[in-house]
Automatic annotation (TrEMBL):
This is ATP phosphoribosyltransferase. It comes from the Archaea. One of its GO terms (biological process) is L-histidine biosynthetic process. The gene is hisG. It is found in: Cytoplasm. It comes from Natronoglomus mannanivorans. Belongs to the ATP phosphoribosyltransferase family. Long subfamily.
Amino acid sequence: MRIAVPNKGRLHEPTIELLERAGLHLENGADRKLYAETVDPDVTVLFARAADIPEYIADGAADIGITGLDQVRESGHDDVVDLLDLAFGRCRLVLAAPEDGDIESIEDLGGKTVATEFPTITRNFFADTGVDPEIVEVTGATELTPHVEMADAIVDITSTGTTLKVNRLAIIDDVLSSSVKLFAREDVVDDPKVQEIRTALSSVLAADGKRYLMMNVPEDRLEEIREEIPGLDGPTIMDIANGGEKVAVHAVVDERDVFQTISQVKERGASGILVTEIERLVE
Ligand SMILES: Nc1ncnc2c1ncn2[C@@H]1O[C@H](COP(=O)(O)OP(=O)(O)OP(=O)(O)O)[C@@H](O)[C@H]1O
Ligand SMILES: O=P(O)(O)OC[C@H]1O[C@H](OP(=O)(O)OP(=O)(O)O)[C@H](O)[C@@H]1O
Ligand SMILES: [Mg+2]
Protein backbone atom coordinates (compact mmCIF):
# COMPACT_ATOMS: atom_id res chain seq x y z
CA MET A 1 0.00 0.00 0.00
CA ARG A 2 1.50 3.33 -1.08
CA ILE A 3 0.35 6.68 0.23
CA ALA A 4 1.47 9.87 -1.57
CA VAL A 5 1.94 13.00 0.56
CA PRO A 6 3.20 16.53 -0.27
CA ASN A 7 7.02 16.68 -0.23
CA LYS A 8 7.18 20.45 0.32
CA GLY A 9 5.03 23.55 0.41
CA ARG A 10 2.50 24.48 3.06
CA LEU A 11 0.82 21.06 3.10
CA HIS A 12 3.96 19.04 3.87
CA GLU A 13 4.32 19.63 7.61
CA PRO A 14 0.67 19.36 8.69
CA THR A 15 0.36 16.14 6.68
CA ILE A 16 3.41 14.51 8.30
CA GLU A 17 2.21 15.65 11.71
CA LEU A 18 -1.18 14.06 11.10
CA LEU A 19 0.37 10.73 10.00
CA GLU A 20 2.56 10.74 13.12
CA ARG A 21 -0.38 11.52 15.40
CA ALA A 22 -2.33 8.71 13.75
CA GLY A 23 0.49 6.34 14.74
CA LEU A 24 1.71 5.81 11.18
CA HIS A 25 5.29 6.75 12.14
CA LEU A 26 7.77 7.26 9.32
CA GLU A 27 10.95 5.20 9.33
CA ASN A 28 14.12 5.27 7.22
CA GLY A 29 13.15 8.59 5.67
CA ALA A 30 16.19 10.82 5.13
CA ASP A 31 16.19 14.46 4.10
CA ARG A 32 15.47 14.70 0.35
CA LYS A 33 14.65 11.00 0.12
CA LEU A 34 11.42 10.67 -1.82
CA TYR A 35 9.93 7.71 -0.02
CA ALA A 36 9.87 6.35 3.53
CA GLU A 37 8.83 3.14 5.23
CA THR A 38 6.39 3.28 8.13
CA VAL A 39 5.84 1.25 11.31
CA ASP A 40 3.39 -0.77 9.23
CA PRO A 41 5.50 -2.96 6.91
CA ASP A 42 2.66 -2.86 4.37
CA VAL A 43 2.55 0.95 4.12
CA THR A 44 5.11 3.06 2.20
CA VAL A 45 4.96 6.85 2.02
CA LEU A 46 5.86 8.58 -1.28
CA PHE A 47 6.74 12.29 -1.25
CA ALA A 48 5.39 14.14 -4.29
CA ARG A 49 4.31 17.66 -5.25
CA ALA A 50 0.79 18.43 -4.02
CA ALA A 51 -0.26 19.07 -7.63
CA ASP A 52 1.06 15.69 -8.85
CA ILE A 53 -0.58 13.54 -6.17
CA PRO A 54 -3.90 13.05 -8.05
CA GLU A 55 -1.91 11.75 -11.04
CA TYR A 56 0.11 9.38 -8.82
CA ILE A 57 -3.13 7.92 -7.45
CA ALA A 58 -4.92 7.67 -10.81
CA ASP A 59 -1.87 6.05 -12.44
CA GLY A 60 -1.38 3.46 -9.71
CA ALA A 61 2.03 4.82 -8.64
CA ALA A 62 0.29 5.36 -5.28
CA ASP A 63 -2.97 3.85 -4.00
CA ILE A 64 -4.08 6.68 -1.76
CA GLY A 65 -2.86 10.23 -1.18
CA ILE A 66 -3.26 13.42 0.80
CA THR A 67 -3.67 16.72 -1.06
CA GLY A 68 -6.04 19.63 -1.62
CA LEU A 69 -9.40 19.13 -3.32
CA ASP A 70 -8.41 21.97 -5.67
CA GLN A 71 -5.46 19.88 -6.88
CA VAL A 72 -7.69 16.89 -7.63
CA ARG A 73 -10.21 19.05 -9.50
CA GLU A 74 -7.41 20.74 -11.45
CA SER A 75 -5.91 17.37 -12.43
CA GLY A 76 -9.17 16.36 -14.10
CA HIS A 77 -9.00 12.96 -12.37
CA ASP A 78 -12.61 13.10 -11.25
CA ASP A 79 -12.70 9.34 -10.62
CA VAL A 80 -10.33 9.70 -7.65
CA VAL A 81 -12.48 9.11 -4.54
CA ASP A 82 -12.61 11.48 -1.58
CA LEU A 83 -12.39 9.29 1.57
CA LEU A 84 -12.01 11.76 4.43
CA ASP A 85 -11.85 15.52 4.97
CA LEU A 86 -8.70 16.22 6.99
CA ALA A 87 -9.84 19.70 8.06
CA PHE A 88 -6.70 21.67 7.19
CA GLY A 89 -5.51 23.62 4.15
CA ARG A 90 -8.92 25.24 3.95
CA CYS A 91 -9.10 27.90 1.24
CA ARG A 92 -11.36 29.27 -1.47
CA LEU A 93 -10.72 29.62 -5.17
CA VAL A 94 -12.29 32.89 -6.23
CA LEU A 95 -12.76 35.01 -9.32
CA ALA A 96 -11.42 38.49 -8.57
CA ALA A 97 -10.77 41.75 -10.45
CA PRO A 98 -9.31 45.20 -9.62
CA GLU A 99 -11.46 47.00 -7.03
CA ASP A 100 -11.77 50.21 -9.03
CA GLY A 101 -11.94 48.71 -12.55
CA ASP A 102 -14.91 48.02 -14.83
CA ILE A 103 -15.15 44.25 -14.21
CA GLU A 104 -17.91 43.86 -11.65
CA SER A 105 -19.62 40.64 -12.69
CA ILE A 106 -18.96 37.48 -14.69
CA GLU A 107 -20.84 38.95 -17.68
CA ASP A 108 -18.27 41.77 -17.92
CA LEU A 109 -15.63 39.15 -18.80
CA GLY A 110 -16.86 38.30 -22.31
CA GLY A 111 -13.85 38.70 -24.66
CA LYS A 112 -11.57 39.50 -21.70
CA THR A 113 -8.64 37.63 -20.15
CA VAL A 114 -8.45 35.67 -16.89
CA ALA A 115 -5.09 34.61 -15.40
CA THR A 116 -4.82 31.58 -13.15
CA GLU A 117 -2.72 28.70 -11.84
CA PHE A 118 -5.88 26.58 -12.24
CA PRO A 119 -6.81 26.56 -15.96
CA THR A 120 -8.93 23.38 -15.82
CA ILE A 121 -11.04 24.56 -12.87
CA THR A 122 -11.35 28.00 -14.46
CA ARG A 123 -12.46 26.59 -17.84
CA ASN A 124 -15.03 24.37 -16.13
CA PHE A 125 -16.28 27.31 -14.11
CA PHE A 126 -16.81 29.50 -17.18
CA ALA A 127 -18.30 26.63 -19.20
CA ASP A 128 -21.32 26.80 -16.87
CA THR A 129 -21.72 30.57 -17.24
CA GLY A 130 -21.96 31.03 -21.00
CA VAL A 131 -19.14 33.61 -20.81
CA ASP A 132 -15.95 32.55 -22.57
CA PRO A 133 -12.88 34.63 -21.62
CA GLU A 134 -9.36 33.77 -22.71
CA ILE A 135 -7.52 31.84 -19.96
CA VAL A 136 -3.87 32.70 -19.37
CA GLU A 137 -1.88 30.21 -17.29
CA VAL A 138 0.67 31.45 -14.76
CA THR A 139 2.54 29.50 -12.08
CA GLY A 140 2.31 31.96 -9.18
CA ALA A 141 1.98 35.64 -8.18
CA THR A 142 -1.32 35.65 -10.09
CA GLU A 143 -2.50 38.76 -8.23
CA LEU A 144 0.03 40.85 -10.14
CA THR A 145 -1.37 40.11 -13.62
CA PRO A 146 -4.36 42.53 -13.66
CA HIS A 147 -2.02 45.39 -12.72
CA VAL A 148 0.39 44.82 -15.62
CA GLU A 149 -2.28 44.44 -18.33
CA MET A 150 -1.72 40.70 -18.58
CA ALA A 151 -5.26 39.93 -17.47
CA ASP A 152 -8.57 41.59 -16.61
CA ALA A 153 -9.36 39.21 -13.75
CA ILE A 154 -7.87 36.23 -11.94
CA VAL A 155 -8.99 32.93 -10.47
CA ASP A 156 -6.81 32.30 -7.43
CA ILE A 157 -6.66 30.91 -3.93
CA THR A 158 -7.55 33.06 -0.96
CA SER A 159 -7.57 32.10 2.71
CA THR A 160 -6.95 35.10 4.97
CA GLY A 161 -7.79 37.50 2.11
CA THR A 162 -4.60 39.53 2.70
CA THR A 163 -3.07 39.01 -0.74
CA LEU A 164 -6.25 40.12 -2.54
CA LYS A 165 -6.55 43.13 -0.29
CA VAL A 166 -2.99 44.41 -0.62
CA ASN A 167 -3.26 43.98 -4.39
CA ARG A 168 -6.59 45.88 -4.43
CA LEU A 169 -8.59 43.02 -5.91
CA ALA A 170 -12.27 42.41 -5.14
CA ILE A 171 -13.99 39.03 -5.21
CA ILE A 172 -16.58 38.69 -7.98
CA ASP A 173 -17.60 35.07 -7.41
CA ASP A 174 -16.74 31.85 -5.57
CA VAL A 175 -15.29 29.13 -7.75
CA LEU A 176 -14.47 26.29 -5.32
CA SER A 177 -14.13 25.65 -1.58
CA SER A 178 -11.17 23.43 -0.90
CA SER A 179 -9.57 21.59 1.98
CA VAL A 180 -7.06 18.79 2.29
CA LYS A 181 -8.54 15.31 2.02
CA LEU A 182 -7.54 11.67 1.92
CA PHE A 183 -8.09 10.47 -1.66
CA ALA A 184 -8.06 6.93 -3.06
CA ARG A 185 -8.27 5.18 -6.40
CA GLU A 186 -11.71 3.65 -6.88
CA ASP A 187 -10.47 0.03 -6.89
CA VAL A 188 -8.76 0.29 -3.45
CA VAL A 189 -11.57 2.02 -1.55
CA ASP A 190 -12.73 -1.20 0.13
CA ASP A 191 -9.23 -2.54 0.80
CA PRO A 192 -8.96 -3.30 4.56
CA LYS A 193 -5.59 -1.50 4.78
CA VAL A 194 -7.09 1.65 3.24
CA GLN A 195 -9.94 1.51 5.73
CA GLU A 196 -7.42 1.01 8.56
CA ILE A 197 -5.53 4.16 7.52
CA ARG A 198 -8.78 6.09 7.13
CA THR A 199 -9.88 5.03 10.64
CA ALA A 200 -6.49 6.00 12.13
CA LEU A 201 -6.61 9.47 10.53
CA SER A 202 -10.21 10.04 11.49
CA SER A 203 -9.48 9.02 15.10
CA VAL A 204 -7.02 11.93 15.34
CA LEU A 205 -9.62 14.37 13.99
CA ALA A 206 -12.26 12.99 16.37
CA ALA A 207 -9.93 13.58 19.34
CA ASP A 208 -9.21 17.20 18.33
CA GLY A 209 -11.00 19.57 20.67
CA LYS A 210 -11.91 16.79 23.12
CA ARG A 211 -10.60 16.27 26.65
CA TYR A 212 -10.70 13.31 29.02
CA LEU A 213 -12.12 14.26 32.39
CA MET A 214 -11.59 12.11 35.51
CA MET A 215 -12.89 12.74 38.99
CA ASN A 216 -13.98 11.10 42.21
CA VAL A 217 -17.56 11.73 43.27
CA PRO A 218 -19.66 10.87 46.32
CA GLU A 219 -21.88 7.95 45.31
CA ASP A 220 -25.05 9.60 46.62
CA ARG A 221 -24.53 12.60 44.30
CA LEU A 222 -23.67 10.53 41.23
CA GLU A 223 -26.96 11.19 39.44
CA GLU A 224 -26.69 14.96 39.92
CA ILE A 225 -23.13 14.95 38.64
CA ARG A 226 -23.92 12.67 35.73
CA GLU A 227 -26.43 15.26 34.51
CA GLU A 228 -23.69 17.91 34.35
CA ILE A 229 -21.35 15.84 32.19
CA PRO A 230 -22.02 16.14 28.47
CA GLY A 231 -20.01 12.96 27.85
CA LEU A 232 -19.74 10.84 24.76
CA ASP A 233 -22.20 7.95 25.39
CA GLY A 234 -22.41 8.98 29.05
CA PRO A 235 -19.60 8.76 31.58
CA THR A 236 -17.86 5.55 32.73
CA ILE A 237 -18.40 4.86 36.45
CA MET A 238 -15.88 2.72 38.39
CA ASP A 239 -15.53 1.54 41.96
CA ILE A 240 -12.42 2.79 43.75
CA ALA A 241 -10.57 0.27 45.96
CA ASN A 242 -10.91 1.56 49.54
CA GLY A 243 -12.73 4.55 48.09
CA GLY A 244 -15.35 4.61 50.80
CA GLU A 245 -18.43 6.45 49.59
CA LYS A 246 -16.74 7.65 46.42
CA VAL A 247 -16.68 6.30 42.88
CA ALA A 248 -14.52 7.32 39.91
CA VAL A 249 -16.18 9.00 36.92
CA HIS A 250 -14.44 9.28 33.54
CA ALA A 251 -15.85 11.12 30.51
CA VAL A 252 -14.90 12.56 27.14
CA VAL A 253 -16.04 16.17 26.88
CA ASP A 254 -15.65 19.04 24.42
CA GLU A 255 -12.73 21.27 25.32
CA ARG A 256 -15.01 24.29 25.27
CA ASP A 257 -17.26 22.70 27.92
CA VAL A 258 -14.44 21.76 30.33
CA PHE A 259 -14.34 25.02 32.28
CA GLN A 260 -18.05 25.05 33.07
CA THR A 261 -18.27 21.32 33.72
CA ILE A 262 -15.48 21.49 36.32
CA SER A 263 -17.23 24.26 38.26
CA GLN A 264 -20.52 22.39 38.16
CA VAL A 265 -19.20 19.02 39.30
CA LYS A 266 -16.99 20.61 41.96
CA GLU A 267 -20.02 22.38 43.41
CA ARG A 268 -21.67 18.96 43.65
CA GLY A 269 -18.86 17.38 45.61
CA ALA A 270 -16.45 16.07 42.95
CA SER A 271 -12.76 15.96 43.95
CA GLY A 272 -9.43 14.87 42.45
CA ILE A 273 -10.46 16.26 39.08
CA LEU A 274 -8.02 15.55 36.23
CA VAL A 275 -8.21 16.84 32.65
CA THR A 276 -6.01 15.26 29.97
CA GLU A 277 -5.61 15.51 26.21
CA ILE A 278 -6.78 12.66 24.01
CA GLU A 279 -4.50 11.49 21.22
CA ARG A 280 -6.99 9.40 19.28
CA LEU A 281 -10.63 8.49 19.55
CA VAL A 282 -11.78 5.40 17.65
CA GLU A 283 -15.55 5.06 17.72
N1 LIG B 1 -3.54 30.46 1.35
C1 LIG B 1 -3.26 29.43 0.59
N2 LIG B 1 -2.53 29.62 -0.50
C2 LIG B 1 -2.19 28.60 -1.30
N3 LIG B 1 -2.55 27.33 -1.09
C3 LIG B 1 -3.31 27.07 -0.03
C4 LIG B 1 -3.69 28.10 0.86
N4 LIG B 1 -4.41 27.55 1.82
C5 LIG B 1 -4.48 26.24 1.54
N5 LIG B 1 -3.82 25.93 0.42
C6 LIG B 1 -3.70 24.58 -0.17
O1 LIG B 1 -2.32 24.31 -0.39
C7 LIG B 1 -2.12 23.93 -1.75
C8 LIG B 1 -0.81 24.49 -2.23
O2 LIG B 1 0.18 23.61 -1.88
P1 LIG B 1 1.65 23.80 -2.44
O3 LIG B 1 2.39 22.55 -2.18
O4 LIG B 1 1.62 24.35 -3.81
O5 LIG B 1 2.14 24.83 -1.37
P2 LIG B 1 2.73 26.26 -1.54
O6 LIG B 1 3.19 26.63 -0.18
O7 LIG B 1 1.73 27.12 -2.20
O8 LIG B 1 3.98 25.96 -2.48
P3 LIG B 1 4.58 26.87 -3.62
O9 LIG B 1 5.78 27.49 -2.98
O10 LIG B 1 4.93 25.89 -4.68
O11 LIG B 1 3.56 27.89 -4.03
C9 LIG B 1 -3.29 24.50 -2.50
O12 LIG B 1 -3.55 23.77 -3.68
C10 LIG B 1 -4.41 24.42 -1.50
O13 LIG B 1 -4.98 23.13 -1.53
O1 LIG C 1 -5.51 34.89 1.32
P1 LIG C 1 -4.05 34.77 1.68
O2 LIG C 1 -3.85 34.25 3.07
O3 LIG C 1 -3.31 36.05 1.43
O4 LIG C 1 -3.39 33.61 0.78
C1 LIG C 1 -3.51 33.56 -0.62
C2 LIG C 1 -2.20 33.62 -1.34
O5 LIG C 1 -1.34 32.56 -0.92
C3 LIG C 1 -0.96 31.77 -2.06
O6 LIG C 1 0.25 32.18 -2.58
P2 LIG C 1 1.64 31.44 -2.25
O7 LIG C 1 2.17 31.97 -0.94
O8 LIG C 1 1.48 29.98 -2.34
O9 LIG C 1 2.56 31.98 -3.41
P3 LIG C 1 2.47 31.60 -4.96
O10 LIG C 1 1.53 32.60 -5.57
O11 LIG C 1 3.87 31.77 -5.44
O12 LIG C 1 1.97 30.17 -5.07
C4 LIG C 1 -2.08 32.00 -3.04
O13 LIG C 1 -1.68 31.76 -4.38
C5 LIG C 1 -2.44 33.45 -2.82
O14 LIG C 1 -1.59 34.30 -3.53
MG1 LIG D 1 1.51 28.44 -3.81
